[in-house]
Amino acid sequence: MRIRRNLKFNLLLLFIIFIILFMIKHLNFNSKNYTTTNNIVIHYIDVGQGDASLIQVNNMNMLIDSGPKESRKKILNYLNSLNIEKLDYVIATHPHEDHIGNMAKIIRNFKVDKFYAPKVENSSSSFEKMVDALKDKKLKINVLNKNTTSLYLGNNTRITVFSPTKNSYDNLNNYSPVMKIQYGNTSFLFTGDAEKEIENEILLDSNNNIKSDVIKIGHHGSSTSSTKTFIEKVNPSIAIISVGNDNKFNHPNKSVIDRLKKNNTKIYQTNKEHTIILSSNGHKIIKNNKTPLAY
């Protein structure tokens, strides 16, 4: 009787283990990247005075910018902590060092499927190293502008690029693509360092729907961006400011902070919160309280 009882117990235990393994496999949950097949997860990575954002959805990864050279160890460790091997898309918003300082290293260290950037060149060492790394990996630069429709992150997602609209600008910041990622009923706006000139261009086109739940504030919260009209049109619930402590530019500017507060927008800054992780199931956006690993 005892043998029979033990056999029944062992069979029950095996059945429970099978159910648990089945659930893990089909939920596709990975504790290190906070993502499931039903979520989009966006990491606004703390790279000091610079920009870097990672979007994870439908088992795909998109990296927008790479931060300045001094944050190299930080961003590489962060991406490695997520067990990322492939970046489906890498986007360089514009050729300023605080946005592309680590692009060459990322291109060489990870498998990159497609690379996008606006059509503008620069003589900086960061830009030249980035181009050399792309050549070595036999990757071409896909031009990113308002006409770009080839960015695709799978089911339930839609990407709209609003700028650049012109072939040339006097200010490198204004080549930055302003782009919106919609996941279900939730939306996230990315702005690079786009300034007032670009914001006004976008506002002039009545077909542009820039309303978004979350905005990555332009140019690290500088007074050159985030006009009153632009913020009112986006009408975000959450604003992310990627910025370094005690930076020489005094970013973010008080006028921008006041403007966001007046709009009842919740503000998160990377110099205060460090890496900020938001996730959405298509209906609700939540903020994760912890980064995946110390880095």
UniProtKB/TrEMBL annotation:
CDD domains registered for this protein in UniProt: ComA-like_MBL-fold
Matching Gene3D superfamilies: Ribonuclease Z/Hydroxyacylglutathione hydrolase-like
Domain Metallo-beta-lactamase: 49-245
Listed transmembrane segments: 7-24
An annotated Gene Ontology molecular function: hydrolase activity
Domain of life: Bacteria
Pfam family, one: Lactamase_B
Record flagged with keyword Ribosomal protein: no
InterPro entries in the record: ComA-like_MBL (IPR035681), Competence_DNA_uptake (IPR052159), Metallo-B-lactamas (IPR001279), RibonucZ/Hydroxyglut_hydro (IPR036866)
Keywords: Hydrolase, Membrane, Transmembrane, Transmembrane helix
PANTHER family for the chain: BETA-LACTAMASE DOMAIN PROTEIN (PTHR30619:SF7), DNA INTERNALIZATION/COMPETENCE PROTEIN COMEC/REC2 (PTHR30619)
Name this protein carries in UniProt: MBL fold metallo-hydrolase
The species this protein was found in: Clostridium taeniosporum
